[in-house]
Amino acid sequence: MSDPQFTHLDSAGHARMVDVSPKEPTHRRAVARCDVQMQPETIAAIVNREVKKGDVLSVARVAGIQAAKRTSDMIPLCHPLMISSVSVNFEVGDDRITIEANVDCIERTGVEMEALHACSVAALTIYDMCKSADRAMTITDLALWEKTGGRSGTYRRAREGAGSNTADPA
Questions:
Q1: How far apart are CA 106 and CA 140, in angstroms?
Q2: Is 19 known to be catalytic?
């Protein structure tokens, strides 16, 4: 791997927002995932819609979508983007909920931060809505799983058990 280039630093080492105006808009897509680990009883309460605060997964889905749209408000050097679509989906297991956020746009810069932000806020929403029943919940493994578009091309995270956790060539 070559030396990293920190594009958000100027020649004096000060933070700056990168100028993306010379770039052509292209279709960009990013997929992020994370897990919320919890007690099986908490999973059952969520699935059976017995959580007193409401329908946990519906609220978490809307929170994730809203987070994707507001990423530049929270991450100081992110560009505000005109997002084309956001989806937040859940896979419910015995002791965890896996969250996947997909974000698309046609822009001059990528949507990786928007997908990661959507995933993390959806996870935090699940925690918030269920914390009175299960304070031991843990949010884990937040990661970018896929990114397409732009000059750097496609990135896909290697599947578990497929060797090291590095990019798969597209």
A1: 30
A2: no
